[in-house]
Amino acid sequence: MFLKRAAALTAAFLMIIHLCGCGAEKEQESMVFAMDTVMTMRLYGGDEELMKSLESRIKELEGLFSVTDEGSEIYELNHTGSAELSDDTMDLVARGLELCRTTGGALDLTVYPIVRAWGFTTGEYRVPNEDELRELLKTCDHEKINISGSMVSIDEGMELDLGAVAKGYTADVLTAMVKEAGVKSALLDLGGNISLIGEKPGGGSWGVGVRDPFSEENIGVLRLSDCMAVTSGSYERNFEQNGRVYHHIIDPDTGMPADSGLASVTIIGEEGTLCDGLSTALFVMGLEDGLDLWRRMDDFEAVFVTDEGEIFITEGLEGSFDSEHSYEVCRR
Ligand code: AMP
Ligand code: MG
Description:
There is one protein chain. The protein has a single domain (14-330), classed as ApbE-like domains (T-fold, Roll), CATH 3.10.520. It is 31% helix and 28% strand. It has nine helices and 18 strands. The chain has helices spanning 4-12, 48-65, 73-80, 87-102, 112-117, 130-137, 166-180, 272-285, 287-296, and strands spanning 16-20, 27-34, 37-44, 82-84, 146-148, 151-153, 185-190, 193-197, 206-211, 218-224, 227-233, 238-241, 244-247, 262-269, 300-306, 311-314, 321-322, 328-330. The strands form four sheets. Strands 1-2-3-7-8-11-14-15-16-18 form a ten-stranded mixed sheet. Strand 12 and strand 13 (244-247) form a beta hairpin. Helix 7 (166-180) packs antiparallel against helix 8. The radius of gyration is 19 Å and the shape is globular. The structure holds adenosine monophosphate and magnesium ion. Residues 1, 107-109, 111, 115, 120, 161, 163-164, 232, 248-250, 252, 276, 279-280, 284 line the site of adenosine monophosphate (AMP). Adenosine monophosphate is lined by residues 1, 107-109, 111, 115, 120, 161, 163-164, 232, 248-250, 252, 276, 279-280, 284.
């Protein structure tokens, strides 16, 4: 979900590039505001031209995927019912749909009208009533997305939102560019979608903090290299009304913010799109169903934090997770 205010902020939020000659490889850093979040890229190696091409690729993908940008392919699809998609948008829609099916619909790319009804697209938050949600739920069904060649069409009232997978896809695209350029060490943080390329400069794994959903602190640090780490959490975007907190991850079965007992899910794997899609989906599915899916798949690991603050990690992360808190290791 990319907000209109993102476009306004983008102009003010200039990309900052620091070039310095620290260490053996030149370090470059860039910050970009895109896809409604701050993206930070740090390359140890490569040149200024590479950084510029990463920045323009981010802008290009944002321009294709945005739900609010009138020139985007998704905007055209949502407003006319059909659109011819570029390879990037088609790749993401197709992969996103696979993940919708893999997760039994916990991820649903057609949830946008419901997200908007809650005000998460504009910041004008409200609690939709039951009748309104019941009507909107009729438009939410990823199985009704028709793909024929490069054309996609949707039923009247339906709208697509790639917000749950777009940053992960962008991380995949940028990671491939950085690797192709021969850079051996880099860190891309696309608003909580983290790509760790190689090891940190000088060798050794990177430390990735897993945020405590209930404070500004970390509940632990993951020691990782050459992979993606993506978190979805109820603390990321929410509002309070009449003493209740409503967050931005919607359960497509009910139209309500997911209430699965989880406060955050972090997914670690090689593919950004998968990690991004699954972090959102497992947040909806909850711990038990999330672990069932993990047992059936072999391409990701996870850290779950429950509403009670309990921490669960999957066994592939044993030895890579440092925490002062107690946690349980889940076995296959
Ligand atoms: P993420 O931050 O990756 O977990 O994605 C959350 C964003 O995806 C929300 O801001 C919505 O735009 C959208 N979204 C919310 N719930 C769902 C869902 N169940 N399936 C797909 N997209 C969703
Ligand atoms: Mg996601």
